[in-house]
Amino acid sequence: MNSYPQICGLVLAGGRSSRMGQDKAALIHPDGRTLVRRACDLLVDIGCQKVVLSIRHDQEIPAGLSDFGNLTIVRDPAGESVGPIAGMVTGMRLQATADWLVLACDLPRLDAATLSALVNSRRDGEKFLAYRSECDELPEPLCALYASESLPILEQAFADDMRCPRKILIRNDCRLLAPVSPNALDNANTPEDWASAILP
User: Residue 186: which CATH number?
Assistant: First the structure.
């Protein structure tokens, strides 16, 4: 049996939500939770020992988290809110020896089965593991597993001003899994996306 490092969860909620017109993290899912709370709960449900929320340096803490136990909040350094890579590096540095399950907060159809399959599919020596996009067959970097050994790669990419985590996965031979639940990784960037995503 393989012996893996501790797995921690990182929720990225530092986007400016300009296309949505309001903070996506605070949108209310049909189950009554905010999107950010639902993402944090899913990470706990599948066994993450630690959950970290990444937000901008000037951002208010999203609603719905006041009674969430043991949540650690990290903020991007001032002037370095340059997309998800800043939050990923800052969050993962908190526990550099852990593997990290990294999620965007704007995945209203994400389910525990999708996350469990990702965690249970990891192999010794893999730095990255992600799902194949249903749209373009490329890696889905914001519902992906980043092993502890991936942190130096992410740090170097950040230092080199490479802002696209998808390109990092492509360049590092990330193994891709077939989606478990249809549309589970559809994100909601606009009001139209949100209206479609919350339909039964």
Answer: 3.90.550.10
